[in-house]
Design a protein that fits this description.
- It comes from Mollisia scopiformis (Conifer needle endophyte fungus).
- One of its GO terms (cellular component) is mitochondrion.
- InterPro entries: Aminotrans_3 (IPR005814), Aminotrans_3_PPA_site (IPR049704), PyrdxlP-dep_Trfase (IPR015424), PyrdxlP-dep_Trfase_major (IPR015421), PyrdxlP-dep_Trfase_small (IPR015422).
- GO terms for molecular function: pyridoxal phosphate binding; transaminase activity.
- The chain is an alpha/beta fold.
- The chain has two domains: 2-59 and 325-432, Aspartate Aminotransferase, domain 1; 73-322, Aspartate Aminotransferase, domain 2.
- Helix content is 40%, strand content 16%.
- It contains 14 helices and 15 strands.
- The strands form three sheets. A seven-stranded mixed β-sheet has the order 4-10-9-8-7-5-6, with helices on both faces.
- A hairpin with a 2-residue loop joins strand 11 (350-356) and strand 12.
- The longest helix has 22 residues, at 325-346.
- The chain is globular, with a radius of gyration of 22 Å.
- Bound molecules: 4'-deoxy-4'-aminopyridoxal-5'-phosphate.
């Protein structure tokens, strides 16, 4: 319509394009798992916005909290601590293993990465930071130095001391053996030998997502994180876990690190904790807090410990525990996964299905025999799915087929999962016809 034409003309003229291509839809409202467009089309949101709207869009209890705090206690000087901040910090500590007792709150994932890295540097007195070669920790300068899928090109030097570690990519690892198993232990030995050679003797921390999401839904195999944690300890490094996407129930446990049995030294949460509002957290031990303080730690950003978003985070955690959302994520995740495995039997271009709970991915191949990566097919299916009413997301890394990411809200119904799978089926059939 001419309304749409003028919308896109104005968008083009006034909204600075940051390199993100716009999808051809104009969403005018969102509720639960559904987005509604200006021409009354409904779209199922299988990405929870930008992986954030954990309880669906505009959950009534979140709306009520926002209304209450916007109207009565929105934002203060950063050194005025409020009830919602203490409540959220206390509630988080009840869910975390005992040593991770203390938390503070910021706005974004990038910001929480910056804070965690700074704390690791202060505590250890060292400066080298190791990250997986496919991990995503944000796009500010420090976090962006530890981010590999996007945003590195032409940005000048990264932070001194940023070192890359081979990401555990079972599907295509050169350490896959002839019988199809994955020799991750040898790969890890190799990774550490490269780190130990490159290091100038100042290893401060390893930062990792428990499941690498933007890097293509890569879940380290069983035992991997336990060994990683032990290798960090051996070298006097802290282990920082970034649970921006995996935290707060999405993978079927409150935190994804719980699947592995390790306890990180520092935990960051963001996207899911704020359920679509800008909230992030950094949690650590009393001992690390003390060490940072002695080394002169200062973190004072404008929205440090804001009451409004802290109240939202506290409500999100309350709902996740009260409504048994971890169990729901597990059940709906298994349903989604079994549907994706059926699609894999039907369509040759699905090379791999992987993920946990309601964070699932499918990797596209362009050749059923050689299993060569199929990045274009992934994009084509995603475009078609959006056209048919399903929003999903594709990530493309060099040497990897396009990877579809599916991360519906944990409030998604069994019927909505079936509907999404039906749309995906249609999209595959269309693209391959
Ligand atoms: N860490 C992880 C694991 C992420 O997925 C993201 C966002 N994709 C970030 C950090 C950065 O968060 P933000 O975009 O809120 O700065």
């Amino acid at each position: 319509s001419s309304d749409s034409a003028s919308f896109w003309a104005r968008a083009d003229k006034y909204v600075l394009n940051t390199g993100v291509p716009s999808l051809p839809v104009i969403i005018t409202s969102a509720k639960g798992t559904r987005l509604y467009s200006n021409n009354n089309a409904q779209i199922l949101d299988f990405t929870s916005g930008q992986m954030s709207s954990l309880l669906g869009h505009s959950h009534p209890e979140i709306v009520a909290v926002v209304q209450q705090y916007v109207a009565g206690l929105d934002h203060l000087l950063s050194n005025m601590i409020t009830h919602p901040v203490v409540n959220l910090a206390e509630r988080l500590s009840h869910h975390l293993p005992a040593p991770l007792q203390k938390s503070f709150f910021l706005n974004t994932g990038s910001e929480s990465t910056e804070a965690a890295i700074k704390m690791a540097k202060l505590y250890t007195g060292k400066f080298e930071i190791v990250a997986f070669s496919a991990s995503y920790h944000g796009l500010t300068q420090g976090a962006g130095s530890a981010t590999y899928p996007t945003g590195r090109k032409n940005g000048g030097p990264t932070m001194p001391g940023q070192l890359a570690f081979p990401a555990p990519y079972a599907y295509r690892s050169p350490f896959r053996t002839a019988d199809g198993s994955y020799d991750w232990e040898t790969e890890m030995d190799y990774g550490w030998s490269m780190i130990d050679r490159q290091s100038v003797g100042s290893l401060a921390a390893f930062i990792a997502e428990p499941i690498l999401s933007t890097g293509g839904i890569l879940e380290p195999p069983e035992g991997y994180l336990v060994r990683l944690s032990a290798e960090c300890k051996k070298r006097g490094m802290l282990l920082i876990m970034d649970e921006a996407q995996t935290g707060v129930g999405r993978t079927g446990k409150m935190f994804a690190f719980e699947h592995s049995g390790i306890v990180p030294d520092i935990l960051t949460l963001s996207k899911t904790l704020g359920c679509g509002l800008p909230l992030a957290s950094v949690s650590t031990t009393v001992e690390i807090e003390r060490g940072c303080k002695e080394a002169g730690f200062l973190w004072l950003t404008t929205h440090l410990n804001d009451p409004l978003t802290a109240a939202v985070g506290d409500k999100v955690l309350e709902i996740v525990e009260r409504d048994n959302m971890c169990q729901k994520a597990k059940e709906r995740g298994e349903q989604l996964r079994s549907g994706l495995l059926k699609l894999q039997e039907k369509y040759w271009c699905i090379g791999d299905v992987r993920g946990r709970g309601l964070l699932q991915g499918i990797e596209f191949i362009s050749d059923a025999q050689t299993k060569a990566p199929g990045p274009d097919l992934g994009q084509a299916v995603s475009d078609r799915a959006l056209h048919c009413g399903l929003s999903c997301n594709v990530v493309n890394l060099p040497g990897m087929g396009g990877v579809f990411r599916l991360a519906p809200p944990v409030t998604v119904s069994a019927e909505e999962i079936e509907e999404g799978l039906r749309i995906l089926d249609e999209a595959f059939a269309h693209v391959l016809s």
